[in-house]
Amino acid sequence: MQQSFPSQWPPSPEKTEGSIITSTPELSDQERRNEADSRAISRMLALPFHVRFWHSMQAVWHALTVNRKVASGTAIVGFFLVIALFGPFFLHGNPNLYTHDANLPPSGAHWLGTTSLGQDIFGQLILGTQVSVLWGFFSGILVTIFSLVIGLVGGYFGGIIDEILSFITNVFLILPGIPLMLVLASYVPPSALTVSLVVAFTSWAWGARVLRAQTLSLRSREFVTAARSNGESVWRAIFFEILPNQVSVVAANFVSTMIQVILAFATLQFLGLGDTSQASWGGMLYLANSQNALLAHQWWWFVPPGLCIAVLGAGLALINFGIDEVADPRLRSEPKIKVPKRKKVVAS
Amino acid sequence: MRHLLRRILFYLAAVWASVTMNFFIPRLAPGNPVQIILGNLEKTGIKPSPDMVQSLAASLGIDTTDPIWVQYMKYLGDLLHGNFGRSFTNYPTPVLDIIGQGIMWTIGLGTIAVVIGFVLGSLIGMIAAWKRGTIIDSTLSPALTFLYAIPPFWLALIVVYIFGFSLGWFPFVNGYDIYGPIDWSWRFISSVIDHGFLPALTLVLSSLAGWMLVMRNSMVGVLSDDYVLMANAKGLKQRRVLFTYAARNAILPNIANFALALGFVVSGQVVTEIVFSYPGIGDALFIGVQNHDYPLIQAAFLFIALGVLGANFLADMLYAVLDPRVRVERSA
Amino acid sequence: MITSVETKTLLEVKNLSVDYSAASGAVHAVDKVSFTLKRGEILGLAGESGCGKSTLAYAITRLLRPPAYITEGEVLYYPPEGRERSPMISKLTRANGYADNSIDILQLTPSQLRRFRWNELSIVFQSAMNALNPVLSVGTQIMDVLKTHRPEMGPDQRKRRATDLLNLVGIASDRLKSYPHELSGGMRQRVVIAIALALNPELIVMDEPTTALDVVVQREILELISSLCRELSTALIFITHDLSLLLELADKVAIMYAGKMVEKATSKDLYLRPTHPYSYGLLNSFPNLHGPRRNMGGIPGSPPDLRAVPSGCAFHPRCPMAFGPCRSVAPPLKQARLGESGEDAQLVACHLYDPRFAPGGLPTQDQFAAGYVSIIKGGKTR
């Protein structure tokens, strides 16, 4: 979905920048939390890098399975991944080939019927899964790397570098993605790779902003100053001190980006700007629409691909919410604790 | 005040950036753009006249030996004079005319959809947070998660299928009845409403989840804050606590996001317009893309970008009005 | 039967218990606490962090949030005669079934509670910055309560009253339109106090109102509170971990430990002759400006985890005077000296004052001092 509202609270980085910095002797809750975090992180600093990284990974795994919501999200995404990787091996023949069995409804031979060009829809769906998921993944990684670099560098160095990078980020953030993608796609020959690149070009800004804010807050904490006063080089400081602590933020950001990317990918293909010879979810819908499948009530053609996109997107969103809940415990649904029967509750 | 100036400066800079990007993108495309474009045009059945070839070469700066920055200056000058060139597909109609019509439709549809979506979504989010842990919240949240992930264009297809084809309740192509009168008669106005219903429905549905989720999370955080506790302790009526104390604070991130979301909202609207053939600016952009009508593409994109920037600016100002903490000058 | 007119009792808490339901079982945050409060009296509640004093205050005012639940007890409020009260309160007292016109706050329905709140009982929270709504001006937040509870007041009257309240706490009238973030910490605390006074309540509960402020502002606020309470004869429950404040401000002081009340005395009595070893330790934990130099005291060890409270007397692992029964029997709160009774009697929960267990007479201050010196020197707690 193009409206990738970050499912996040604390407030967006812009708000905290504009908030009032007055010196009051009292510590806000956020500051107290920061201090506690800093102490915890300083303790962790004593551990070697690979141990810390492993701990972060473990935390991510835990976050992915900690409650029902998140676990179901992980299951959905895992399911699609498996199909993307192994599904095509189980196909008979090439679903992209045109045959004469056109416009057939679902049957034993064709589980989801055929297109107006005689292609097996179910087979196309599986191929499409591979294309959409794997290319989506690829774009997602591109975007994450890009936003990581910009966010970390800008947040860490501050000053004029940060001003410039921030400005670029904000401009890209404000420019509407789809129109920009349309314009770019019209100048560039269509293929899965170019579509990926176009999507990556327009989607990195949000992640960069989030990571920059995170880096800014981490940079000013004691453990970074401590590391630098020990003589650690700047790059080491960025990649070995700050980054491991941001793994969960990066993970959440990656998941958000994936949602955006998969949708953008599908949208471009739906509009006919991708490679239409290869099966993909968006491409299938493009063909369905242009072949008037709606008119012909061929719901088995135009419902499954969109459904796949929606379900995969929902799975990713669930994971994201789970990560949010780990980060902000207030969002967690409290497990229902029974009040012990022997003590009656007088009032609450 | 300084805050205001900073924001204005930013938006001016962003405008400049969009304009410049618009200038450079076609010039960066690989290959000989004139040949590519001519080839594409012939594919779509348009035979380019020598006039068109000339103006095409001119608009792409091929025909001059001026250095690039001179071309850039000319380009800026043209823009300021409102000269956006002529559309290829509707030669010799000036692009500005085509865009002018489209803007009205887009703004009309968009404003309604965004306002409804924002209000409805925030209300639902508020209720979901207030009734957290009850059945209302536990059904709303997964339902809306799913809605959030549905691609808008697919949602549009489904809406068209269900309400357009199967039930036949609403028309699903065009912005108005093209066979009817185009004036301020009731027949026209009612056909506008009729035709706008399904696109608006699609837009509201696809954006609802986003507003709702942010509002819900924000509200949950606010409800556990001390001033809400204090409001309850003061014995204020529940409605006042909910709206003036809790929601008024909880909605701030949604408004901050509103500004950013506008870019996404416009993007979503572009796709919806395309599916419904709604005569807005997004549809114009798409038609341009399909027909390789480069002046149209450039102008449409520029206006979309400017529109988004303008709306962002307004939302920023609105945020400053609502959150008094932002009005004070930032330090460091 | 004690009538409210004779002794002017305002609030009577009987056997109040609050549990937190945690995953590992119920945690007793407040354990059968009882005390009374007279009209216009200032009661200080002191203790280390986590001893349950804030929980107790929130329980009395029914502001607890899950997973905290009140599991037993009564909180009886005796509305004083001669005050204009809403007809609702009179209705409550008559219907309550108590012969002495009291209202059990814990039994009020939500709508009754809403109307009761702030009229008779108001609260000052610890962090004023968090207690004030950041998007409303302070004037609006004062007039809020007036609008809700005094519908007969017109907008001008409300504004005048709000201005009067601000002046009462020493803030200029033009600050009515200011937002919380535009005021300093001390001023914000004053605003919260002004809001608390808006409806002339009989009782104010203050939860560490000065903890987050610097000492100079602290003193000003305390003097303000003290003079206002005397002037308006408002009763006050003042919660803090800083015992030194209470000795000056409060009429009576109650010390809490691990959810139980372990001593209650007038502030003078507590200062001159603390009866509970814990109170003695607390008093000697801060240095005096005058008097001979001595080694810094303190109480070795730390308060117990409420999920695993020691058996018998909760203080016994840290107590220099612990003996036999302390490990197994929990001491009840009763008079320290037999023969003393009445309002100002010193109450203590310690076996040292129980003639059945310690027939040898009451412990002296010197014995306390020696006991602490030995465990501090010994560097261990039992």
Explain this structure.
The complex is a heterotrimer of chains A (348), B (332) and C (382). Helix content of chain A is 67%, strand content 0%. Chain A has 348 residues and is mainly alpha-helical. Chain A is built from 14 helices and no strands. In chain A, helix 7 (177-187) runs antiparallel to helix 8 and helix 9 packs antiparallel against helix 12. Chain B is mostly helical and 332 residues long. Chain B has helices at 2-28, 33-43, 50-60, 68-80, 95-130, 135-149, 152-166, 186-223, 226-233, 238-276, 281-291, 294-322, 324-327. The two termini of chain B are 16 Å apart. The mean pLDDT of chain B is 77. Chain C has a domain at 121-201. Helices cover 32% and strands 20% of the residues of chain C. In chain C, the strands form two sheets. Chain C has an eight-stranded mixed sheet, with helices on both faces. A four-stranded antiparallel sheet of chain C has the order 2-1-4-5. In chain C, helix 7 (155-168) packs across helix 8 (185-197) and helix 8 (185-197) runs parallel beside helix 9 (215-232). At the A-B interface, helix 1, helix 6, helix 7, helix 12 and helix 14 of A face helix 1, helix 6, helix 7, helix 8 and helix 10 of B.
Uncertain residue segments of chain A: 1-27, 334-343
β-sheet strand percentage of chain A: under 5%
Structural class of chain A: mainly alpha
Main sheet attributes: strand count, strand direction, barrel closure of chain A? none
Radius of gyration of chain C: 22 Å
Mean pLDDT across all amino acids of chain A:
72
Helicity of chain C, as a percent range: 25-40%
* Rg measurement of chain A, Å: 24 Å
Mean pLDDT of chain C: 82
What assembly state would you assign to the polypeptide chains in this entry?
Answer: heterotrimer
List the helices and strands and how they pair.
The complex is a heterotrimer of chains A (348), B (332) and C (382).
Chain A: H1 13-18, H2 29-45, H3 49-65, H4 68-86, H5 121-157, H6 159-174, H7 177-187, H8 192-203, H9 205-219, H10 222-229, H11 234-245, H12 247-270, H13 281-290, H14 299-327
Helix pairs in contact in A: 3-11, 4-5, 4-14, 5-6, 5-8, 5-9, 5-12, 5-13, 5-14, 6-9, 7-8, 8-12, 9-12, 10-11, 12-13, 12-14, 13-14
Chain B: H1 2-28, H2 33-43, H3 50-60, H4 68-80, H5 95-130, H6 135-149, H7 152-166, H8 186-223, H9 226-233, H10 238-276, H11 281-291, H12 294-322, H13 324-327
Chain C: H1 4-7, E1 9-22, E2 25-38, E3 42-46, H2 53-60, E4 68-77, H3 87-95, E5 103-104, H4 110-116, E6 121-124, H5 128-131, H6 138-149, H7 155-168, H8 185-197, E7 203-207, H9 215-232, E8 235-240, H10 243-249, E9 252-257, E10 260-266, H11 267-272, H12 277-283, E11 334-335, E12 347-348, H13 365-378
